[in-house]
Every structure is written in structure tokens, then in C-alpha cells.
């Protein structure tokens, strides 16, 4: 029998359970309403109080390295500091004894300024200006380009409203070494010169991004971050040797100043590959401090200047004659110190002498303009023009270098009576250092011309190696022709007046000088000043490296003798750097006169 006392607790339990279920049902209905029925409305409401934000994730610009991987240009991290004006104020710090201390904003500003190089007033003004522009502002840029040391010092202050954005910046560890080739970057990260500019596609990074939501206090809401990864730039490997480049830059700087010249260059090419192993210039540029250099010195004269090659063209004329069967090294002409040709052209040598019966080899040894002019009569103008084009004269180079120019060679129909002869000894024609080096590379490489190269490869961020596409090699002259010219140039090094100055102990060397006139900009030539060149290779019996030294307007010695000591030192260092074995055979002596 159920009594009142037993029914009462059971009824209370049922009622309590019903109440709990009703409350739960209410919560469920409300939850469905919030998350499903009115979801869009509540998301919009949340976005009013939750502030969206994003920042870039910077990719690192690729490095530029030499042939062995030594860094010529790299990237470091710099930091941009920002303040959150909405939270700027006193900073609470814990003392050593555990007590709390409140540092007023004016003192905090002074602490920041002591590190960033700003006054407390300047920093306070940054905040005041940001608040005046937008009372709710949470962003005010403080200082860009802080070093890692400055960043760490600021972070150690523990200021909750101070933030940092890291980003890569360019650095050049060896300063001016190869600065003329590497180029430099602008303050806004734009490539402005050299390989930084011409190889920008390889080096450029692709930035990513980080997006997020944050509350009114500026704190990022956990779980809202979305990231798009950055892609770093590729590594650009050059063909040059950093240490050799450094040595030759010191050498050409010394030679330019010793000879009272305007500028100078030393270029080294590997004979069997066409790879440029050094391209030194003075004056040049330090990419770390571009503003310290004259604007005219911030590029590469090797690639952007042209000049009259003078007598360095005589071996090219000789190669043309030998290759076509018009002459041999022992063929002869009779040449005086100055002559007038049947067409009225006048040609003179740099020294007075009676009529000599010169061999072709002798014409190169004494660098006789009259002699090479008489030999040039043995080949038609069109034939000579075609060979110069095959040697690469006026064709520029295959190297992608911004601002590079090509030489100038008129077609035979525009050769007048005088230029028919003058072009044979490098006057009335303009070339560039890469063009001349390319022509001599063909002679040194048994007639096979391999396009010059300065870039070895680009290694992408994912490890993919992209080799530089090389143009096809061409046989300019027969191997026997090239060997004959090599031997004649070797005899220049043995029998010319500069022979003692250019000798490299233990090695047979081949060499040719050129003293070119300089245009005055008014259709004539400057008086008493010249562009001097010395170019040659070693060992003469098996050429491995070609070295060219140029000086613009040397004044202490005005002829190409001004280049001799630098050429000798440069070739000596090149042979030492690449451990080229000394010569083991005696040179082939050729007669100067018939």
C-alpha cells in the first residue's frame, strides 16, 4: 500500500527531472538558433568586435656565390618596429625583490629611443600623431631596418605594446669585391644594377602571408591564423673566383693610379670553356655603400664601354690571311715607317724605320701598321669583314648583363680608302672587352669559339639546378691556323721590346698590345692620350687562360707599355691560382725578317 510519504519524494524527483529537461531543451533550442538559424547574424556581430589582420611572410632573396660557393651577396634579417597606440602607457615591471614597479610612458619612450636612435619626444609624437589620425588606431610605425642586436635589446625591455616584423635585407660580405658585377639593391628592395638586376628572376623570392583575427586588445585570437608559405629565391652561382677577383681589383687599382689613368680593367677567361674567372675594374662600387661611389663607377665598364682596339686586331687580320691561304707566318712584305698607298691612304708606324722585308710574324712582333696594311691587301674587304664577324666583333656577348653594349663594325660597302687599311690594325672600328676576349678565346682554343659565360647556374629553393643555356660553339678558323697565330703571338712575347717586362718564369706566354685612339666627341680624336690594351694567354703551347688589361688614358706611360707590369702580375697569379703546370717545351722561334 502506497502512502503519502512514499509518493511525495518520487513526485519531487519527476518534477525536478522535468525542470532539468526543460532547461536543457531551452539551451539546445538557443544553441541551434545561434549556430544554425542566426549564424550569419552572429558572425557579423563578432566581426564588429574581432578585428582582422594580416602580415607578410617574407621570402629570402637568393645568394650570389662564386665558383666555389663563397658568398658575394646574401641576405640578413632586419626588423621593423611598430607600436600599438591603443595600449601605449605605463609598463609594469617586477623588481629583483619581487615587488611591482610602474614605469611611466615618458621613461619607456626614452628607453626605446636609446636603442633606436630617436629621442623620447620623437617616439611620443609617433603615438600622438597616430591617435590624432585615428583614436582607435592599433598601428603606428616606429623605426624600419633595425639590426638583430637592436631587436634583441628592444625585446628585452618587455614592452607589451611594441611589435616587430622581420624582413630580409641585402648584405655583401666582401664589400667591393666583384661589386661591379654583382650590382646592388635600392632601399625599397628593387634590384638596381649588375647581376642583381639582370638575374633578378633567379634571385627574387615570393612572399607569403599570415592572416588572423584579433580582439580589441590587439591580441591574436588563437586558431584564426591562416598561413601561405613564402618561397625563397634561388642561389646564383657565378664562374668567377672570389679570391682572384679580389687580388686583381687591388692590382688594377694600383696600376691605374701608378700610370695616372682614368680607369682600368683586368679580365680573365678560361680558354677551353669560355668561363670568365675574374672581371676586375677600378674605380668600382661597394654595394654596401653605393652612395660613396660616383654614379659613373656603379656599373661595369667591361660590359658597358667600347673602345678602338688598336693593334690587338692584328692577330685577327693575320688569322684571316692564313685561314684563307693568302699568307703564312713566313710570308713577306716590304714596309717602311710611313707610306702612302695607291688609293691615297696614308699609314704610319709608331716608330721611324727604313724599308724592312717583314714576315707576317715580324709585322706582329714589331706591331707594324704599314706591314699589316700591306698584308691586308691580300684579302678582299668582304672576306676580312666576314672573319671579324665570325670572331664576334660587333656582336656583343651572350652574357645577360643589363646595359651591355656591342661594338661597331661598318659593312665593307662603307669602308673608304683609309678604313680599308685602318681596320686591319684596329682603327676606325669599336669593340668591347667581352668581344675581344671572345675572339682571343677562339685563337687560344685552336679556332673553336665558345661563348663567354659569367653565370654557372641557378639553384631554385626546391633544389632544382638550372644550368645557363650556352650558345653553340663555332669553328672560326682551322686548328692549324689558330696554332700558327698562337706561335706568332708567342714570338711577340719573346722578341718585342716589352718581352722582359711580361715574361712569366717557367711559362711560355703569348701576347699582343694595342694602343687605340680615343674619340673626342666631335668627329675627331683626342690629342696625346690613348686607350691601351694588353691581351694574351699561357702556356703558349697549350693555352689555358687568357688575360686582358686595359687602361683609359694613362699619362705616365702613354703607350700599351703602361699595361705590361699589371699583365705580368695578373697572368702569374692566374697560373698560380689554377695550378697550371709550367711549360716543358721550348718555344718555336719565328724570323722577323725575310
From TrEMBL:
This is Peptidoglycan D,D-transpeptidase FtsI family protein. The lineage of its organism: Bacteria, Bacillati, Actinomycetota, Actinomycetes, Micrococcales. Belongs to the transpeptidase family. Keywords: Membrane. Pfam families: PBP_dimer, Transpeptidase. InterPro entries: Beta-lactam/transpept, Beta-lactam/transpept-like, PBP_dimer, PBP_dimer_sf, PCN-bd_Tpept. Residues 264-564 form the Penicillin-binding protein transpeptidase domain. It is found in: Membrane. Residues 58-213 form the Penicillin-binding protein dimerisation domain.
Amino acid at each position: 500500500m502506497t502512502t503519502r510519504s512514499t509518493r511525495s519524494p518520487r513526485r519531487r524527483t519527476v518534477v525536478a527531472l522535468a525542470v532539468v529537461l526543460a532547461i536543457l531543451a531551452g539551451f539546445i533550442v538557443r544553441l541551434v538558433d545561434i549556430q544554425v538559424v542566426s549564424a550569419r547574424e552572429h558572425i557579423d556581430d563578432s566581426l564588429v568586435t574581432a578585428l582582422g589582420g594580416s602580415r607578410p611572410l617574407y621570402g629570402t632573396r637568393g645568394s650570389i656565390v662564386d665558383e666555389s660557393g663563397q658568398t658575394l651577396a646574401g641576405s640578413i634579417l632586419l626588423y621593423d618596429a611598430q607600436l600599438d597606440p591603443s595600449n601605449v602607457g605605463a609598463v609594469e615591471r617586477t623588481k629583483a625583490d619581487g615587488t611591482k614597479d610602474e614605469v611611466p610612458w615618458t621613461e619607456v619612450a626614452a628607453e626605446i629611443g636609446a636603442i633606436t636612435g630617436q629621442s623620447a619626444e620623437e617616439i611620443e609624437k609617433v603615438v600622438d600623431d597616430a591617435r590624432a589620425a585615428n583614436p582607435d588606431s592599433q598601428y603606428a610605425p616606429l623605426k624600419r631596418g633595425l639590426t638583430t642586436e637592436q631587436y634583441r635589446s628592444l625585446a628585452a625591455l618587455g614592452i607589451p605594446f611594441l611589435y616587430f616584423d622581420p624582413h630580409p635585407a641585402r648584405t655583401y660580405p666582401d664589400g667591393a669585391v666583384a661589386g661591379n658585377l654583382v650590382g646592388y639593391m635600392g632601399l625599397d628592395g628593387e634590384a638596381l644594377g649588375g647581376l642583381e638586376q639582370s638575374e633578378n628572376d633567379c634571385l627574387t623570392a615570393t612572399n607569403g602571408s599570415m592572416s588572423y583575427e584579433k580582439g580589441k586588445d590587439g591580441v591574436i585570437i588563437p586558431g584564426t591564423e591562416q598561413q601561405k608559405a613564402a618561397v625563397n629565391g634561388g642561389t646564383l652561382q657565378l664562374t668567377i673566383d672570389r679570391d682572384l677577383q679580389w687580388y686583381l681589383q687591388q692590382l688594377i687599382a694600383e696600376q691605374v693610379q701608378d700610370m695616372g689613368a682614368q680607369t682600368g680593367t683586368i679580365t680573365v677567361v678560361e680558354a677551353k670553356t669560355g668561363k670568365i674567372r675574374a672581371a676586375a675594374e677600378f674605380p668600382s662600387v661597394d654595394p654596401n655603400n653605393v652612395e660613396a661611389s660616383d654614379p659613373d663607377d656603379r656599373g661595369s665598364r667591361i660590359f658597358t664601354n667600347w673602345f678602338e682596339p688598336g693593334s690587338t686586331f692584328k692577330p685577327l687580320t693575320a688569322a684571316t690571311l692564313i685561314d684563307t691561304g693568302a699568307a703564312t707566318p713566313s710570308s713577306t712584305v716590304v714596309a717602311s715607317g710611313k707610306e702612302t698607298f695607291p688609293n691615297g691612304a696614308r699609314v704610319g708606324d709608331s716608330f721611324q724605320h727604313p724599308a724592312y722585308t717583314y714576315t707576317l710574324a715580324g709585322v706582329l712582333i714589331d706591331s707594324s701598321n704599314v706591314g699589316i696594311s700591306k698584308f691586308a691587301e691580300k684579302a678582299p674587304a668582304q672576306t676580312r669583314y666576314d672573319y671579324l664577324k665570325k670572331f664576334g666583333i660587333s656582336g656583343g656577348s651572350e652574357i645577360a648583363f643589363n646595359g651591355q653594349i656591342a661594338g661597331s663594325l661598318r659593312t665593307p660597302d662603307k669602308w673608304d680608302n683609309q678604313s680599308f687599311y685602318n681596320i686591319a690594325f684596329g682603327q676606325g672600328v669599336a669593340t668591347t672587352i667581352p668581344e675581344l676576349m671572345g675572339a682571343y678565346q677562339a685563337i687560344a682554343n685552336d679556332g673553336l669559339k665558345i661563348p663567354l659565360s659569367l653565370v654557372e647556374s641557378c639553384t631554385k629553393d626546391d633544389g632544382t639546378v638550372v644550368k645557363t643555356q650556352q650558345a653553340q660553339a663555332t669553328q672560326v678558323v682551322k686548328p692549324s691556323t689558330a696554332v700558327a697565330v698562337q706561335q706568332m703571338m708567342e714570338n711577340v712575347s719573346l722578341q718585342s721590346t716589352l718581352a722582359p717586362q711580361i715574361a712569366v718564369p717557367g711559362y711560355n706566354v703569348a701576347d699582343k698590345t694595342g694602343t687605340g685612339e680615343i674619340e673626342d666627341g666631335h668627329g675627331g680624336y683626342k690629342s696625346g692620350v690613348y686607350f691601351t690594351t694588353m691581351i694574351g694567354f699561357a702556356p703558349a703551347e697549350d693555352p689555358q687562360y687568357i688575360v686582358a688589361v686595359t687602361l683609359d688614358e694613362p699619362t705616365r706611360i702613354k703607350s700599351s707599355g703602361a699595361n705590361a707590369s699589371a699583365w705580368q702580375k695578373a697572368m702569374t697569379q692566374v697560373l698560380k691560382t689554377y695550378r697550371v703546370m709550367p711549360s716543358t717545351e721550348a718555344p718555336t722561334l719565328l724570323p722577323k725578317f725575310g
